[in-house]
Recover the amino acids of this structure.
């Protein structure tokens, strides 16, 4: 049961208000919960069209998560580093990190189970064992996975405290004028399309830094190095699209058109700098760009 207290005189529909607060649920799912009397406003059942008011107390009985039965699968994955506490891998583009609706298997977790056997942290639950952070399905690159609970807790704290430095490489449409800049724009779930995120002044803080690696004037695109302070869903893709430099191949936040017919965004998680969860030693690890990305850059040059 989740509870919210309306802090402003919102005067917006109940389903719209909850869509902002419950990022994991679609608006139709929220409307269904309301119709099933699983949402109470001041301990009373109400309708989706109810306009929320200042100091309203809203209680939501969320549906139980139906967790998948996991199985180990022999899927080739590049292991960059491994010891008794962590395993660091280079996730290929097109692979989902953990099982979810529509992706019951073939995920990074399925591959890790074959590599690590029973040596994965249990904190992430049955469908996310060892998963400390994620990258999108069509983003390639480096991911650190915890092999025990102590390591998982330590790495989660480092992420929470912005102590892990994440660096990405992105190829964007357009010639970026600034040599380097910071984007500080809050992000939340898009109210019109629940599969998308968007910049919203009522969203959560999101900070992205970028600098130009190379401008390809003839091809009207720019290669960027990107670092993020926060880890909002689709953060880099949303921010770069918002400032009119969408990532090439991103079908969600641009029109997806590109003269090279790249499928999936040209976004690669290049490196991680962090402290080893047990020894405290500073570690810096890199994941090579995928072949298609290297070849595209070579063609541009």
């Amino acid at each position: 049961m989740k509870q919210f207290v309306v802090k402003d005189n919102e005067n917006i529909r109940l389903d719209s208000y909850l869509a902002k607060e419950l990022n994991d649920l679609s608006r139709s799912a929220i409307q269904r919960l309301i119709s099933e009397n699983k949402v109470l406003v001041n301990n009373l059942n109400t309708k989706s069209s109810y306009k929320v008011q200042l100091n309203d107390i809203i209680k939501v009985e969320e549906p139980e998560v139906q967790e998948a039965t996991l199985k180990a699968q022999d899927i080739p994955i590049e292991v960059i580093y491994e010891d008794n506490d962590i395993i660091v891998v280079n996730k290929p583009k097109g692979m989902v990190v953990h099982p979810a609706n529509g992706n019951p298997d073939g995920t990074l977790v399925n591959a890790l189970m074959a590599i690590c056997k029973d040596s994965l942290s249990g904190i992430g639950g049955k469908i996310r064992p060892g998963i400390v952070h994620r990258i999108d399905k069509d983003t390639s690159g480096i991911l650190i996975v915890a092999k025990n609970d102590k390591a998982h807790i330590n790495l989660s704290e480092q992420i929470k405290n912005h102590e892990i430095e994440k660096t990405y490489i992105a190829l964007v449409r357009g010639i970026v004028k600034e040599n380097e800049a910071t984007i500080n724009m809050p992000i939340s779930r898009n109210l019109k399309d629940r599969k998308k995120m968007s910049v919203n002044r009522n969203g959560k803080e999101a900070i992205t830094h970028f600098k130009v690696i190379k401008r390809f004037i003839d091809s009207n695109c720019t290669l960027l190095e990107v670092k993020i302070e926060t880890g909002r869903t689709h953060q880099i893709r949303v921010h770069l699209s918002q400032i009119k430099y969408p990532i090439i191949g991103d079908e969600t936040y641009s029109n997806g058109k590109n003269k090279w017919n790249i499928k999936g965004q040209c976004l690669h998680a290049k490196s991680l700098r962090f402290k080893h969860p047990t020894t405290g030693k500073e570690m810096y690890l890199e994941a090579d760009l995928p072949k298609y990305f290297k070849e595209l850059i070579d063609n541009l040059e």
